[in-house]
Amino acid sequence: MTFFEAVGGEETFTRLVRRFYEGVAADPVLRPLYPEADLGPAEERLRLFLMQYWGGPRTYSERRGHPRLRMRHFPYRIGAEERDRWLAHMRAAVDELELPAHLEEPLWKYLVYAAYGMVNVPEDA
Ligand code: HEM
């Protein structure tokens, strides 16, 4: 069984990312970074990426190609503050999934690691 299946498949990632983007929508620092008025397409891209990362369908790469996430984030200024706000909304979203610890732990560890890796303001890295 993949991690994707173990946590509940697509439905779980849909809930995670929906809750996360509710936080982003209300965040005065993060919201202005998103170029589109509608956060829906960004929500869909993050949802498909995370599903693929954890062993689910490869729809993300079929639509977007190789993730190259650090490169795709270069247009946005991501310092310690942006990273920490991103992680705070993600933490709230992960909490609402109420996953067993053996699943929640690797998910959260990855998200923290990935968020630190996305920082592109040298003095904050
Ligand atoms: C795209 C911000 C971290 C995954 C974006 C976009 C912004 C953004 C503004 C463009 C919206 C769009 O058009 O999709 C941030 C900030 C972060 C962060 C402030 C703070 C650390 C992460 C992390 C991941 C991630 C840790 C993965 C675990 C993605 C994906 C996309 C995206 C998959 C869409 C890429 C594409 O296909 O174009 N992010 N991001 N982001 N982000 Fe992040």
Descriptive notes:
With 125 residues, the chain is an all-alpha fold. The chain has a single domain (3-124), classed as Globin-like. It is 64% helix and 0% strand. The protein contains seven helices and no strands. It has helices spanning 3-6, 10-25, 40-53, 59-64, 69-73, 80-97, 101-117. The protein starts with a helix and ends in an 8-residue tail after the last helix. The mean pLDDT is 97. Bound molecules: protoporphyrin IX containing FE. Protoporphyrin IX containing FE (HEM) is lined by residues 30, 33-34, 42, 45-46, 49, 64, 69, 72-73, 76, 78, 82-83, 86, 114-115, 118.
Keywords:
single chain; about 120 residues; mainly alpha; Globin-like; 7 helices; binds protoporphyrin IX containing FE
Number of domains: 1
Which CATH C-level class is it?
A: Mainly Alpha
Question: What's the count of strands?
Answer: 0
How many strands, which pairing sense, and closed or not: the largest β-sheet? none
Gross geometry: globular
Radius of gyration: 14 Å
What is the arithmetic mean of pLDDT?
Answer: 97
| Unreliable segments of 5+ consecutive residues | none
Structural class: mainly alpha
CATH fold-level topology:
Globin-like
In which range does the helix fraction lie? 55-70%
Beta content comes to under 5%
